[in-house]
Amino acid sequence: MATSTNCAADLLAPPNGDLESTPDVLFEKIASEFAAPLARLVRAHEADPTLQQDLLQEIHFALWRSLRTFDRRCSLRTWVYRVAHHVAATHVLRSRRRRARQFTTLDDADFPTANTDVAADVDAAQVLQRLYALIQCLEPLDREIIILHLEGLSADEIAEIAGLTSTNIRTKIHRIRQLLATRVNAGDRA
Amino acid sequence: MTTQEIWQLQALDAPRVSAAYMRHRARDLARRTQIRKGLAYVIGIPGVLYIAWYCWRYFRHMPMMVAGLALTVVPLVYVSCRRHRRASAAQVPEDAGALDSLSFYRRELERQRDARRNWRQWLLPVVPGLITLLASFVLELNPIPWALVAYEAIVIVGGVSLAVAFEQWSARRLQREIDALDSLVVKEPER
Known about the structure:
The complex is a heterodimer. Chain A has helices spanning about 25-35, 35-45, 50-65, 75-100, 125-135, 140-150, 155-160, 165-185. By secondary structure, chain A is mainly α. In chain A, helix 2 (about 35-45) runs parallel beside helix 4 (about 75-100). The longest helix of chain A has 24 residues, at about 75-100. Chain B has one domain (about 15-185). In chain B, helix 2 packs antiparallel against helix 3 (about 65-85) and helix 3 (about 65-85) packs antiparallel against helix 6. Chain B is elongated, with a radius of gyration of 26 Å. Chain B starts with a helix and ends in a 9-residue tail after the last helix.
């Protein structure tokens, strides 16, 4: 499994000096290490490419502002994902009002089953297309959990970011795995 | 290849945003806020002066109608600004990273629900103006335009009832979402 989020492991260590904890220095590190995860998160929340750019900038701006209050009580990765998901959830709520769109939960997600005949050599682009379609019909909290799971975070890490219990997150991840295996169908096992 | 691997290895445009650009954006935002405030004054002051002139000019002939208009327009503008500020999605707070997603999302839903439940706060201030306006049609106009009186009465009763019903329906929908979020919070068993 690729570990793009693990690149931020050095950020989880306590600061070595004043320079390390400067908000601008932290922001530059975040912008560098989390560029790809944040871009994926934005694409998962917003289908329109123009609005994706706006949302990405909004997230970076919120992160830049928030670093002044970052007190290291949680890891920087947790902080980054929380802020990013708050901005994305606000964006989803706003767009739902504008488009009068209804979302569903993981338990109620009714998504077309993938064609199992082509499961072995299924195109990655098709998998991603199905994945984005699945994510974009979910409620913000369920979106967050599935995105963090796909980013490779553990149930405990997701629980800390989302504010749910680890047991609850494990149940949801089980449901996500089922959905990925039956509806998205790459090489997953339920 | 698993879905997680496909997800993490996908090719996408991931621009790197610099702190210098964020400072530029913050300055730009502050400048635009100043311009917006300035425009509000530039448009608002002549508007207030025009309404004041209109009231002064017609107050002698139709004082009740002028009072009714003023009592309708002024609270309407005030509550519209206030409501827009409260009901629109808030800017993500600076300490957002300290708040978990469930709490943040719940707070957002509560804020929107409360804005819808507080329909009395925007409805009651405009009612005296509308009633005064209605009374002025009967007392100050000759002959009395009964069609206009009936039309306004229907608008007041029907419009208000529909608006209240919609706000209550919307608040109930948001409350259901809050209840659904609350049902996710289950206490961890003691270890």
